[in-house]
Amino acid sequence: MPPPFRVTRQTRLLLAEFLSNPTGDHYGFEISKATGLKPSTLYPTFARLENAGWIEGTWERIDPDKTRRPARRYYRLTPRGHFEANNIFAGLHTGDMSTAFGG
Amino acid sequence: MTGLLRALISLGSMILPLDHRSRLRDEWNAELSIISTQSGRLAALRFSLGLLLGAPMTALALGADEGNPFRETSIVAQTVLLPCTFFVAYGVLSRQLHFLLAHTGLLVGVTLVSIGMCRDLRHPLETMWARAGLVLAIVSGSMVTAINVNGEVTNPILSGAFRVYLGSSVVMLGLLLLLVSGLVPLYRHRSIQIGLLFTGAGALVWTLLVIANTVLAATWVDRTFQIVTAPTLIAASYAAWKAFGRPETYGIPG
Hints:
The complex is a heterodimer. By secondary structure, chain A is mainly alpha-helical. Chain A has 6 helices and 2 strands; from the N terminus they run αααβαβαα. In chain A, 53% of the residues lie in helices and 10% in strands. Chain A has a two-stranded antiparallel sheet. Chain A starts with 8 loop residues before the first helix and ends with a helix. Chain B is mostly helical. In chain B, helix 1 (2-13) packs antiparallel against helix 2 (18-38), helix 2 (18-38) packs antiparallel against helix 3 and helix 7 (165-183) runs antiparallel to helix 8 (188-216). The A-B interface holds A 4-5, 27-29, 38-41, 43-44, 47-48, 51, 60, 69-73 and B 20, 23-24, 26-31, 33-35, 37, 47, 50-51, 54-55, 57-58, 61-62, 65-66.
């Protein structure tokens, strides 16, 4: 089944970052630094992937009074997202990531 | 300092669609706290300014997603932002400030209406953004019309220019109807429909007259402005017609 949104170069960059640590929690600033994506691209892409069920967003479980900072929002790849992301990269060009990113 | 940066983030998030606004504001504030602790004030300032300046594009990207009833309107807002940039550059270069102010005001007004539509999906014309945008568009558009009335250039071939203000006057009437229909609930569907028809048809006439004058007339300065403004208004009217036709909003049959 094709993705419910257009898979742009930015979406691929984001998915590749998730695939680099598929079971780990990721957050916006970290991904922005790693991929070079601007917030104006990053957060709408998060929303798109979350709506499609490819990633799952959860709030950090902390007591803001104790930590003296608000809870951060983490994103994690879902099993479906893992499957779909692998499909995208496998379907583009095996082993040549520059082609996958349109380079 | 952190309070100021939080205020910048809150300001930026105000432009976002309702269903994303509070979540993204909380998320950005959390990131800001950690960045200011770990990377210092400069990084936090850069982060906040990046969010603030990028907020319009974030709003448009969120609004452009499939399933959002204002996809078309968001696309129009993007098409409007480009001419606005052009006008600023052009106005500085040509020093024709009255053209610059009038046309930019009209297009910024249309952009504000689009933003208002993105912010409240169910009552787009009732938002403050849309009302302010319509008032700005009407005031600036009236300036454009006044320039059109007084600034008709003699056409060397036809001994007189086509009356461009006929088109822009009809557009102003359409915008006025849209403003009234956002304020008065009586006959809202019908008045929005007529307002959009006036805006679209007026912009079409305006475009055709400008094209005719540009081809035939000797001067080009005000024509250059108008050849951008008038087609943009056609696109905006069409997009608004499509957006208002969605069942989630006013459900005007298109």
